[in-house]
Write a structure and sequence with these properties.
Shape: globular
Number of helices: 2
Order of helices and strands: EEEEHEEH
Number of strands: 6
Strand content: over 45%
Distance between the termini: 36 Å
Amino acid sequence: MIDGLIGGRLYGAAQERTGQGGRAFVTAKVRVAAGDETLFVNVIAFADDVRAALLALDDGDSVALSGSLTPKVWTDKQGQARPALDMVAHQSLTAYHIRRKRQEVQGQADPHQHHGAAAPHPDDDVLF
């Protein structure tokens, strides 16, 4: 297996399921741009936070996932072999996570803020 990071859009809705041992998991498909082609990544998630993030997304929502990747091949209707990846996702990042983090950062007191001055952007202290 390969540890990897993918970014793409959810293809269809994520599905919650329960294994034979009673363990809950979520499956999803993510469309990833791979040069001029589109690659489908079959995702399975067992971690509660990743499961919840995938279930909160709608078809076409952007998502980034990290986890273990396994290369696969599937055959399309025309008989052509196509690449695919299977991923066991361990972490996720969505636009909703970013918005929530930004709100948390902006809600905290800024030690650089002076009375009457506009609050600086959270990235203002980043050195280049």
